[in-house]
Design a protein that fits this description.
Length: about 110
Amino acid sequence: QLQASGGGLVQAGGSLRLSCASSGRIIGLKAMRWYRQAPGKEREWVASILPNGLTNYADSVKGRVTISRDIAKKTLYLQMNSLEPEDTAIFYCNIDTRYGNYWGQGTQVTVSS
């Protein structure tokens, strides 16, 4: 089970750090990702981190967000800076393994102008 947290209301230009904690062991990891879904839009990929630490970002957030993970704490993070109203969305964490694909419940991020 994945528990996402850290969302909230922030002014444009502000920062938030999202967390996603796994309650169980992560076996056969392929990738850890963040997605987001803005009102009226489809869910879109935001960032990924591979087991070797390689990261990748959507163009819309590149340079403003950093994905990271703490293996010992079984937690995935998303540090978001210079937030824009267009970043308003529900953010979902995703863990992709050889044995299944798992989603967190989502955490709301609202950026006011």
